[in-house]
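Archive entry. Fields below.
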Amino acid sequence: MNPIFLLHPGDPVAVALADLSDGEALPNGVTVRGSVPRGHKVALRDIDRDGAVFKYGQVIGHATRPIAAGEHVHSHNLGMSDHTDDYAHGSLAKPTAYVPEAERDTFMGYRRGDGKAGTRNYVGIISSVNCSATVAHHVVREVERRGLLEGFPNVDGVIAITHGLGCCISNKNEAFAMLQRTIWGHVRHPNFGAVMMVGLGCETNQIPAMVETFGKPPAGSMHYLTIQQMGGTRKTIEACLEKLVSEVLPAANKARREPLPASELIVALQCGGSDGLSGITANPALGLAVDRLVAQGGSAVLAETPEVYGAEHLLTRRAVRPEVGEALIERIRWWEDYAAKLDGEINNNPTPGNKAGGLTTILEKSLGAVCKAGSTNLVSVLRYAEPVKERGMSMMDTPGYDPMGVTGQVAGGSNLLCFTTGRGSVFGYKPTPSIKIATNTPMYRHMEEDMDINAGTIADGEETHEQVADRIYREILRVASGGQSKSEALGFGDCEFVPWNISAQM
Amino acid sequence: MNPIFLLHPGDPVAVALADLSDGEALPNGVTVRGSVPRGHKVALRDIDRDGAVFKYGQVIGHATRPIAAGEHVHSHNLGMSDHTDDYAHGSLAKPTAYVPEAERDTFMGYRRGDGKAGTRNYVGIISSVNCSATVAHHVVREVERRGLLEGFPNVDGVIAITHGLGCCISNKNEAFAMLQRTIWGHVRHPNFGAVMMVGLGCETNQIPAMVETFGKPPAGSMHYLTIQQMGGTRKTIEACLEKLVSEVLPAANKARREPLPASELIVALQCGGSDGLSGITANPALGLAVDRLVAQGGSAVLAETPEVYGAEHLLTRRAVRPEVGEALIERIRWWEDYAAKLDGEINNNPTPGNKAGGLTTILEKSLGAVCKAGSTNLVSVLRYAEPVKERGMSMMDTPGYDPMGVTGQVAGGSNLLCFTTGRGSVFGYKPTPSIKIATNTPMYRHMEEDMDINAGTIADGEETHEQVADRIYREILRVASGGQSKSEALGFGDCEFVPWNISAQM
Ligand SMILES: [Ca+2]
Ligand SMILES: [Ca+2]
Ligand SMILES: [Ca+2]
Ligand SMILES: [Ca+2]
Ligand SMILES: [Ca+2]
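PREDICTED_STRUCTURE:
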């Protein structure tokens, strides 16, 4: 097995896949000087003092003294450069190398009345406020108990989308608009054949106000009622069940899968429970798969602003237009202000644990997260839960916390999710399926029932990034076409809708 | 029917229960001058200019011009007085008139090993982070599917307590301490016979760290495991089920109800979906029931700081010690600062809708909420989810939002909940049962399957406050003894655990 790993052809450093000892010969003929721990960087050639050090083909810092080929590269000889405010908006944007239309891939999806493409055909019972959450879940439970889905084989399931918010908040600020967008993005999600909204009646987050804000959905695609209007819990549940059987399920059951171009895919990118291999195996492999999807005319949604923090100038340089880069910087400034207000700190600096694992600079750390978005242009920067409108790679402003990030990405229209994990996150979501990619083989083996893809084969020397990227890309098409992901088989997705709230709860 | 309603014997104003017309004779012989709409105040005697106007036996403002008996009392002749910073800590505290011990009431409850008293005997599956929420719910589902409760008739049920928090937060600030307290207050709640905690493994909110913070619970009362340690979702569910059947359920099943003094009751007070009658019927009647409970040596927990705002000096005057009153003011200042930081506003001023309904000043409005805590001393002011330690009436700092408020109150040890509602909230909780008290008869009739008690009979002239208070008090003892509340019959309580988060989610 090759003891080192090169993340980009031109990089002057590689990552050790095992502990390297003094005098050991590397495949390129260089001899290791001193020792280099597993996961740390080794110099592949001499680097001058002040010379730029590249990893992932990107600058991660500058040499603070001359570095000889074979030396360990870390805090003792690598430092941060003054870089952070040269956003150089769009300076590295380049034309996308699209696959000719005639040669593009397809998947079997649902074409909705509004032109959007779904990968699933669920019916959603969506609550406007926590006060109606129990009713939504009981409707789902009764559908199962009474076997009401039996006559509707084309419906993937009736699911409850509930949450802890919706009242005792100002209805005038951005936080309220975010909640409305988050819920509405699910109401109008193409993975739903139809939805029913259930409210209490007196909540701040009024369902009719959402209809007014966003416009009346096409007839039959959305129904709503409130508990107070229906006269209580039991009557509301019965009314929902009656409406489901008489109208909603028969309508949703008419949907059929048909061949749709891969350009209709909007893939949410997420990582959770990262480890030292995340930025070396799973994330770069996912980045290559994203590049392939974008070449097909498809879309990907990077998120998790606090984890991008410190590498924002790399994204601004890939912005298709200066405004796109500027929108990202505006979001970065918002986070600095918000975190400071709440005595928090936005700071993605490597922790002592990261440093022990071989990460030297904030750039290197953030690059490990950002590289899952591949190398194409940044086509738009979205507010939380804002609909994806431009094809290509977008960035949505979300927290790094998995359920809140994914909830925003799905609200934006993501019809598939690729989730990399090192420690073993078991994340699944509805109505958007989640493909989980393990960064290392031991965890994959330990949790194989939960993991869809093992990218640890790269560190094991058994596969290249391109080979794993190919498996990810094919898995995207398979799952988008209705193939079950591991988290779907396990029944995840009834607890993971967690809207992000930035305002004071009164 | 008496057309007016007097909230306290000495009050110079009464509330109109129907529209009053010019010349109409009131029961006390006074003649109505002009018209007084339903829900508004009418003067029962002449009030001098600058004279204090009392309602609930409390000053709600001063006459801005002379008011004649029979006149409508509202914004045109009643204004706010300069009162707000005279906290007069403890000036109105008085000895509690306890019922002699030998004459005290009892209920049938569970005496736990640590001395605490439970009103239910559930087994809880509690998640440390959203990432383990699905596993917790699936354990509960499998218990039902496989009929695993069959041999354990003394266990009220196996329930999942899950939430949207637990990771990507600082573990150094008060917000994290709040989350730990909230979860631990449920882990150690006397309404649980035993609990199992389920974590993912890599979350910020580590289960062992909670055990270290709060101390090891008595053997057998708490078990925990993580998904990453067990090797995935299915194996974790099976391990939980095995532990439940072999150890947890048999242990919990040993609990038996026995007569316990009413002094062991800790009743959370909450209102949701309030209306114009909340402060006139249900809340004051609940206040009388609370006074009766406190006279028995029992405890009540007022909460909802934003709704107390503006009437805090009334509570500080009832403080048993100056520090207690000062602790309340410290919380009020915290809210002002917190709301300002998030571009919010803490302001309980009457809205145009409140004014149209007859509420003139902020004092009058807050009094309508505070009066559900009765008239006894304020014995302590608690942080969110802090354990109730002093018997009597305490105030816990929580948002007004029902699920977040109740989650904190239950974490503090509340073993029963009284919830007043005018619009018709259908709130239920587990493991603490909820008694819902309707403020008006039309809503009670409309939603009778959800409402436990109708306090609208007071406005109807059919019962006095004392009569309704007696029904509430007896219902408290009945439900505490295992009698089913309406929300329990309907199966509420699997979605309403919503911890309050005041920090930035990263
Ligand atoms: Ca992450
Ligand atoms: Ca994440
Ligand atoms: Ca939920
Ligand atoms: Ca309220
Ligand atoms: Ca409330």
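CURATOR_NOTE: The CA atoms of residues 56 and 98 of chain A lie 23 Å apart.
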